[in-house]
Amino acid sequence: MKKGIVLFIIVCAAALSSFAQFTFVAVSDLHISDTLTPDSDLNAQYFQCAIKEFDTLHPKPAFVIASGDISDIGNVPPHGMYPILTQYLFPPTLSNPGIGAYFIDSAQTIPIYFVPGNHEYWSGFETNGTPISNDTLTYYTKYLTPDTDYVITTNIAVIVFLRSGHDTPTFGVPPNPALVKGTGLSNEQCSWLRNILSLSSNKRKIIVMHHPAVNAIGTNSDGSPYTGGVSDTAQNSILNNRTTFLNICDSNQVDVVLNGHEHQNVVADRKGDTISENWPNGTRYVQTAAAFNRSYRIITVDPAFVTVSRPMRSCNTIYSVNELNNALNMSVFPNPATDKLTIECNQNAKLEILSIEGQIIKTINNVGLKTTIDLVNLSKGVYIIKVKTDKGIAIRKFIKR
After folding, report:
1. How far is CA 202 from CA 15, 166, 278, in A?
2. Residue 317 — φ and ψ, nearest 5°?
3. How far is Cα 391 from Cα 318, in angstroms, rounded to an integer?
4. Cβ contacts of residue 192 below 8 Å, gap of 6+?
5. Residues 385, 335: contact at Cβ < 8 Å?
6. Domain ranges in the chain?
7. Band of pLDDT at residue 204, cut at 50, 70 and 90
8. What is the pLDDT of residue 380?
9. Digit-coded pLDDT (tens) for 122-132
10. Rounded distance, CA 278 to CA 283, Å?
11. Closest CA to 3 of 258, 191, 212
């Protein structure tokens, strides 16, 4: 991974300094956007709906954290798709914003803090669908926050934000998500983390990073069993200094480590055993399912304990992409395809085929229950199928061979 100098940036949440207790909202995996077309980006619209809901919570959250994969392809020119997100934040026009410079409300009372995920490093896809991952953050720093580890401190807590790295080169062909880890933490990051935590021995300690340090099988956003499979506790975790990180958490009595990446809800101990959200016997490794499926958690911090809520769901009157896919009972086959592609769904809809860059290749205004599309004139590569209904937009990806 990149061995740059870790900056010792401390962000003091002055508004919290007199609070004996406060809450904040944890989200992850916004994936703005699934397509590269801003006018049809559903994930951004779900995020807009969610932050409006967060602004009405009682008690009012002190801040919101977004733990990675903010953009679906963070390094795609010309802006990594981040303006599709920042149009909903305040102030709406910032260049190279500082840490905590964005707020979710127009009154600018609830800041939002970001940490990068592996998708922040993506710049596109190879023709076989394998993501292209860089080791630098080009647009993240311009639109969201500096490329650095940082800390929020209050009189009762310290919240540490860590970069867990870009993808390791283990995708394989075809891609195998079970083999992909973040590059992990440098030795400099580990030393910095030890120092920060040792200086806060009398405070509650929370760490935020994208990749889960400990993995286990949990549930999807809708509560159904997670079917992604977890072969061991280090799957989809971090490659460098994982054990060192776990030891740092143990020796410094870290309360909670907040992660995303796996798009599931689960809480585990260091050994990978599933535990309750508020298990009292050590560090809790907490995963929260994807924000684009409307998942979030509320974290409550007081001098004695950090309380983690059960998984919550925002905007329950709106279909998520996955839910609409299921509601339509939509099938796309064969995938990969060569000459023809068949789409089946249980209602009439409008269909578009887009390139991975968001260009509309083909439009069919009235798709029936079963439609076959000729692919002979399409070049090899990854494409997006977008089915529009009165309840929203369902999305599938397919590969033309």
Report:
1. 20, 33, 20
2. -90, 0
3. 8
4. 6, 8, 149
5. no
6. 9-313, 321-400
7. very high
8. 87
9. 998 877 777 88
10. 10
11. 191
3-state secondary structure the chain: CCCCCCCCEEEECHHHCCCCCEEEEEECCCCECCCCCHHHCHHHHHHHHHHHHHCCCCCCCCCEEEECCCECCCCCCCCCCHHHHHCCCECCCCCCCCCCCCECCCCCCCEEEEECCHHHHEEEECCCCCEEECCCCCCHHHHCCCCCCEEEECCCEEEEECCCCCECCCCCCCCCHHHCCEEECCHHHHHHHHHHHHCCCCCEEEEECCCCCCCCCCECCCCCECCCCCCCCCCCCEEECHHHHHHHHHHCCCCEEEECCCCCEEEECCCCCECCCCCCCCCEEEECCCHHHCEEEEEEEECCEEEECCCEECCCCCCCHHHHHHHHCCEEECCCECCEEEEECCCCEEEEEEECCCCEEEEEEEECCEEEEECCCCCCEEEEEEEEECCEEEEEEEEEC
pLDDT tops 70 at residue 390: no
Could you tell me if 306 and 300 are in contact, meaning their C-beta atoms sit under 8 angstroms apart?
A: yes
321-400 to CATH, choices 2.60.40.3080, 2.60.120.10, 3.40.1440.10, 3.50.50.60:
2.60.40.3080
Which range among 208-217, 228-237, 297-306 shows the weakest confidence by mean pLDDT?
228-237
Sign of the dihedral through C-alpha 143, 212, 244, 152: positive
Q: Is the pLDDT of residue 393 over 80?
A: no
Q: Which amino acid is at 134?
A: N
The tokens 């003091």 sit on which residue? 12
CA-to-CA separations, 136 to 1, 83, 117, 224, 319, in angstroms, rounded? 9, 19, 12, 36, 34
CA 113 to chain CA centroid, Å, is 13
| Interatomic CA distance for residues 318 and 42, integer angstroms | 10
- Fold type of domain 9-313: Purple Acid Phosphatase; chain A, domain 2 (3.60.21)
